[in-house]
Design brief:
The protein is mostly beta strands. The chain has a single domain, classed as Methylamine Dehydrogenase, Chain H (7 Propeller). Helix content is about 0%, strand content about 35%. The chain has no helices and 19 strands. The strands form seven sheets. It has a three-stranded antiparallel sheet, with no helix packed on it. A three-stranded antiparallel sheet has the order 6-7-8, with no helix packed on it. Strand 6 and strand 7 form a beta hairpin. It is globular.
Length: about 290
């Protein structure tokens, strides 16, 4: 299956639909939020290439999903193995783990991978304990990489946070349980409650936390550099926080969207994106060039 339009998906790198599509802002397909791969395909990339994040994109047609970090990326093959490329000054590419993992998330210059038993593999830059401070126990349901820190969700929905705490993004993490999803921005983070409401903490200079919509019924969420996005049950998008590059006002209107993706870096990486238009492909409505 091949599609000629550029497509952006938002998520934290769970195995996903994969086919020959592309998005920009260092221009990569991001995964649909699905738990089982239905297709595999090749990667097409274009845009900012300061660290080879475009020119060294791996060949092959067996990729199921992609995950983006600061200036580096991971491609997950059908067998669960990881291919990394881009900026590698702290081993965020060359020190990636070997083996099969259930989910992945990248920070600015570090990364996490979740094993089948719920333990976490961590690698890359460790100046704030974002690697060495990673919990060594098993049983986590998901993991999320922030700018210089990490977050993990236990099986009971409680949150563990480690790494940089410059804006209380560690010390202000919720202490109760029952959360269903995590999303990590550069200096802030979000968690989704069972009723679909969003709780946020950390840096709030641009409304990343204080402007969170007071609603229930959200099904998933992601965090950008200084902003956040959430998807309602009808597939419409809520956006809040920094709008210096039109990240909020240019967000697509309407309903029927099925997934969201994140970029940790500010909007300058999205300046090569095409016009913001929803593109229907078969029965799916996806985002064409939606930046965060």
């Amino acid at each position: 299956m091949r599609f000629s339009k550029s497509v952006s998906f938002f998520g934290q790198g769970r195995p996903a639909l994969g086919f020959r599509v592309a998005c920009s802002a260092c221009a990569l397909l991001l995964p649909l939020l699905m738990t089982q791969p239905l297709f595999a395909g090749a990667i097409t990339a274009w845009g900012l290439d300061s660290y080879g994040q475009v020119s060294t994109t791996p060949a092959g047609s067996d990729f199921n999903s992609l995950v983006t970090g600061g200036y580096h990326n991971l491609g997950i093959r059908s067998d669960g193995s990881i291919v990394g490329w881009g900026w590698d000054d702290a081993g965020q590419v060359s020190n990636r783990p070997v083996g099969a993992f259930s989910s992945y998330s990248l920070g600015e210059r570090h990364g996490y991978a979740l094993r089948a038993d719920g333990s976490i593999a961590a690698w890359g830059e460790d100046g704030n304990g974002q690697v060495s401070g990673t919990p060594s126990v098993a049983g986590f349901a998901s993991v999320a990489g922030g700018g210089y820190n990490g977050y993990a969700l236990r099986g009971d929905g409680s949150i563990v946070a480690w790494g940089n705490n410059s804006d209380n993004q560690i010390s202000s993490a919720p202490t109760d349980a029952g959360y269903t999803r995590l999303a990590a921005g550069f200096f802030h983070a979000y968690a989704l409650r069972p009723d679909g409401s969003v709780v946020g903490w950390g840096r709030d200079t641009l409304g990343e936390v204080s402007s969170i919509p007071v609603e229930t019924g959200f099904t998933t969420l992601v965090a950008g550099h200084y902003n956040g996005y959430a998807l309602r049950a009808d597939g419409s998008i809520a956006a809040w926080g920094d709008n210096s590059y039109g990240q909020l006002t240019s967000a697509p209107q309407g309903s029927g969207f099925i997934a969201l993706a994140k970029f940790l870096l500010p909007g300058r990486l999205g300046q090569l994106l095409p016009n913001l238009r929803p593109q229907r492909t078969r029965s799916l409505q996806v985002l064409q060039g939606f930046r965060v």
